[in-house]
Write a structure and sequence with these properties.
By secondary structure, the protein is an alpha+beta fold. It has ten helices and twelve strands. It is 34% helix and 28% strand. It has a six-stranded mixed beta sheet, with helices on one face.
Length: 316
């Protein structure tokens, strides 16, 4: 059966996407072999015509003559951009393991298998990811769309009840809100909004509490003059949401033998001063007080003695 030209062009684009980039040139012979595996037996003349056709369709197929002869498909993202994306995904506590795998799969499909394998096989993720369930990407997309459309949204959210691990209960609550913007602070993503009944009172809620979202036909009735950094938590038991957090002084005492271990754990620019008691020293650093810091200090509870503040409760 003769090769279908339109299907063959799709196969050619797929081959160039998967097997080529600026660091991995694919030769004419290898392209013809790959096309044969797809069921398209053609000669070099037809291949050159096909490459011309997909170029005319907007695909940037680059011909290379040195150091090896062949072609590659220029991608939408260059290697430097992909490195930034990979670093951001690996280092962000906002990204779950499932979302990380989704990005990895997208990189492979977008950038090609050779570069993908190189990036994955030369990088290991040592960052601790959040164990909390994340919001459905569909819900986040609906919220973003409602912000652009200036429409209200019906949110279904979890009501947190204390338990052995302060895990989410099955209790749910429905809110009709005017979504304003998504904000990042304290390593968390939150939705800033006003309730339809209180359009001038800015509030926020952590995205992980949102189970689902539905865009409504009603236009927003929020007061647009409020300042996002002045909003308060919807459930009232958390500190005000802030885009910019001020540093505070952390002062503690530790054994000099534990200095390197503590320094490595906190990963902060700490100032050290000798204490009168032999074998001990003081550490001082200006840092943001948040959950991450509290977790590190809890891990070091047998190594350090807090002086300012006097307890972890003041940090949390």
């Amino acid at each position: 059966m003769p090769s279908n030209p339109r299907i063959r062009l799709i196969a050619l684009i797929d081959i160039l996407t998967i097997y080529s980039d600026e660091f991995n040139i694919i030769s004419t012979e290898k392209i013809l072999k790959r096309l044969a595996e797809y069921g398209h037996e053609i000669n070099k003349r037809v291949l050159m015509e096909d490459i011309k056709s997909i170029r005319e369709a907007g695909f940037n197929v680059v011909a290379v003559s040195s150091p090896e002869k062949g072609f590659y498909l220029a991608k939408a993202f260059d290697p430097k951009t992909m490195h930034i994306i990979q670093k951001a995904v690996y280092s962000s506590p906002l990204v779950s393991n499932e979302e990380e795998n989704h990005v990895r799969n997208s990189i492979e499909k977008t950038f090609g298998s050779q570069t993908f394998e190189m990036m994955v096989n030369t990088t290991i993720n040592l960052s601790q990811k959040s164990d909390f369930e994340t919001t459905s990407p569909d819900a986040v997309h609906i919220i973003r769309k409602a912000i652009i459309d200036n429409k209200q949204v019906m949110l279904t959210v979890l009501v947190i009840e204390p338990g052995d691990t302060f895990s989410p209960s099955k209790t749910e609550k429905t809110l009709v809100v005017n979504p304003y913007i998504l904000g990042v602070a304290n390593n968390n993503l939150s939705l800033i909004f006003t309730c339809s009944a209180t359009p001038s009172k800015p509030e926020y809620i952590g995205i992980r509490r949102i189970i689902s979202a539905k865009e409504l036909d009603c236009p927003q009735n929020r007061n647009i003059d409020f300042k996002p950094h002045e909003c308060t938590g919807h459930f009232g038991k958390v500190p005000p949401f802030a885009m910019n957090l001020k540093s505070r002084c952390l002062l503690f005492k530790l054994r000099t033998d534990d200095l390197e271990y503590v320094d490595h754990t906190l990963e902060l620019p700490i100032e050290y001063r000798k204490a009168e008691q032999k074998g001990y020293c003081f550490g001082r650093v200006n840092t943001v007080f948040n959950g991450k810091l509290a977790g590190c200090l809890y891990h070091l509870r047998d190594k350090i003695e807090l002086i300012e503040p006097k307890s972890l409760e003041e940090i949390i």
